[in-house]
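Hi W.,

Here's what went into the run:
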Amino acid sequence: MIENTLNFPILSLLIAIPLAGAIALFFFPREEKDAIRMTALGFTLVNFIASLLLLFYFDTSTYKMQFVERYDWIPWIGVQYFVGMDGISLLLMLLITLTSVIAVLCSWTAVEERVKEFMIHILILETGMVGVFVALDMILFFLFWEIGLVPMFFLIGVWGGKRKLYANIKFFLYTLFGSVFMLAAIIALYFAHGKATGVYTFDLLKLYEVTYSYDLQWWVFLAFFLGFAIKVPVFPFHTWLPDAHVEAPTAGSVILAAILLKMGTYGFLRFNLPLTLQASYTFAPFIVLLAVVGIVYGAFLAMAQKDIKKLVAYSSVSHLGAVMAGIFAMNQQGIDGGVLQMINHGVSTGGLFLLIGMIYERRHTREIADFGGLAKVMPVYATLALVIFFSSIGLPGTNGFVGEIMILVGLFRANVMMAAIGATGVILGAAYMLWMYQRVWFGKVTHAENAGLKDLSPREIVTLAPIIILIFWMGIFPGHFLKLTRASTAHLTEMIERNQAVMDMIAGSGRMTVEIPRNGAAKPDAQAQAGADAHVAAVHE
Amino acid sequence: MIFNNAAIMQTLNVNLNAVAPVALMTVLAIVLMVIDFFLKRENKFSLGIVTLIGLVLILPVAATTVDPAPAFGGMVIADAYAAFFNVVFIIAAIFAVVISNDYLRKISSERGEYYYIIIFATIGMMVMASANDLVNLYVGLELMSLSFYILVAMRRSATGAEGALKYFILGAFSSGILLYGITFTYGFAGTTNLTEIARMGVNLSSANHYLLIAIIMLVAGFAFKIAAFPFHLWSPDAYEGAPTPVTALLSVGSKAAAFAFFLRFFGGAFHEFHAHWAGLLWILSAATMLVGATVAIQQKNIVRMLAYSSIAHAGIILIGVVVMNGFASAGVMFYMFVYAFMNMGAFTVVALMARNDGTGKSISDYKGLAGRRPVLAFVMALFLLSLAGIPPTGGFTAKFFILASAIEARYYWLAAIGVISTVISLFFYAKVIFYMYMKEPDALDDMAPVTQAPSTLAYNIIIFITAVSTMVLGLCPTPVMDMAIAAVSHL
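Here's what came out:
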């Protein structure tokens, strides 16, 4: 493990700055709304700038954890305060700090009631999210995972729409249901590792070092799967998402789409694959199936929606299905594409929710039927919307295209049939997004109320600007971003391929005694071939 | 037989140090009785202050009285384990006494006997925790129970009478069952001393029918005290009828006392028969968790909801008793410690919200509390989240230790049921938070001041202490858990 090259507890700082902001806001008088907004913006901006520092000091040549900090917390059961990051967490970290700035900006005029509490919740949520993506101690991870839940609960519950109570309790119970099973799995791993090595620890890197029995892996995978699949959400656990999205305030939706859903996919990458690799093989075909069903089903549901926000929520189900399919294609292209698509979806869907928030603030409706011809009234808005729509569809030149094509390539290598079905998601995505664009922005102004709408204010343009920049930057120079994650994903892929060879030999020879291939992952195909030959020989005997 | 005084003294092993906390508490109770005699009705509140001072002075004595050798002919044992629980009892009693002053004035029921009966109840709990003999245990249990029968009936209302009567009749019945179980134990072991029983246990045939009957009856008797399913029916009524400070003490103190003896008895004297009683307690634990959590959902009264939540908690703690190893026992002790703070905190908020006419205990009375009393709503949310087991509160840490011990000992199904019941219970805890933060008050009369208590200072102090402790125990459980582990190691 690389020590902290920065010689400075940068990750703790990133966790602490928003928390300090929340504490500072606590002492503000609640009438000073503008001061509260400025302070919240200040703290999120400082955190964003601090997170940019990571880019300069990040070593892209290694998969190992960087900026590591480690202190004992509850020593007698081996719980530590242990944080660090690799390429996968780095990109998500930057997305979090950027999204938090955007969340504050987009609530500037949208939230007028209880501004103080609102900003406090946003800042605590940022602390929780940052913590999730850097925690390397399982208990610490779980802690941040749950901490993020409470402010979201309040964001939806207090500042939400009409059916907020229903949506909120659904969101809360679903997520907690999954996470308690995750906790059980963490404890099971802890004891399994302790019994195998004599060292009882929740240190994730230590837990990686042991290969657990297949039975245990099977159960642990399933428990983790419940926790993460609900969060992603994977079909058929997705029903909480549209409700939560529709009822959440704009900032809540943006954070939910951009970051919280990624906690699930990140969990699969960080925990399921490395810890329970063998069980992952068993489950991968089923998960790819669920993911592909999610892509198609989510897309069809999106097409049928009358509410713009609900449409985008279902499109999230579809896009996250693609991310899951990429990850569980279990090869380099798929995983790279999945990671990139996580960021893409954060950028483009976050942007879509911002767009919806802007129009909702003006019209207080989100029904597609209430709009039409907005392009004439709000030309800037229409232009920026079109860019974000194209990104969401995955038009070449935008970020969405790169991620989708990589996922499809990876999926094609794993399962041609699934790739073929999954690819229809791209077409369906274009269909529902463009159809919506046509109904809302093109044509005549059908409603008199829409005729007098103001175009975007400078603040709103500033809010959208980073998203537009990222869309093109990631679309034209995806290498800049892939470079950051490459070492981490390559390490993961290498681990998968090495195990693949072993597994193939087990399956091939029909015997449980297997030699570990001496030349590692160099020639997995040759190994598999050898296994198949052995199997043929065994049959003939 | 030679009647030699010195020899008798030696076998009796008179060691006043071992009973110092109990003796001091008794002195306190007697002093209170005497003072009460001279006080006019409007001055009864000064008794509360004397009680408080007495309890605060006894607390360090109870915490430091550690003497692992059994005293009084093996009747009493004042080990670190007993000291740990004595601290829990006295802390709970202190909280109850502090909030009682205003509460009694609010319900116009200021009586002197209230305070010394609380002390007697606490003495009963302390005797139970340090009992090393079934007879001594029974004396402590009855002292505690009889005191609580009176305390529950203290509010002379219909609900108070109903709750007290139910509690009394069922309680007396269950005491009888417990005593019957003790006689069976004596029947096969020839002694009521726990150390002796443990020694007998090694030689006893495990197929002894009398042993099984004894186990069943003892479990039934204790299950009543901790309000485990199906012996829980008294608790919602008693909780609702009793003055809220008494409810708080009842839910924390009597439960902790019963668990204190549960652990000492099943972990020590009956440890050889783990295979016999563990299955019984397994079923009891699973059923208690699920029934407590599901029935709580339908409750409209916050006290009844907390009563069922308390039943669900008893089920979770029972997991630790089923597992019964060092880690699990320490987990149970830690859980009781945290529970004392978070539950006391929640009940203090309930006592503060209750109005003179006995209303204000419906969950719908909490609608919009965050708008009127943001800090109060915040701490109530904290207590509820802790009871629900959400990190980083103490409730999470406690639940974590218990579930971890179950998984370690391969009680996977029990752990799974514990996890599921936790999720179910989230629903009703979250509901109160919804009401506080996300609903508007029903009518204008709810906008009236939350409390008409003369002073809220006492409440605020208790709420502050319990809230801070709940958080600290969640973030930094090591000191208390270290103490619990040290105490268990001598068991």
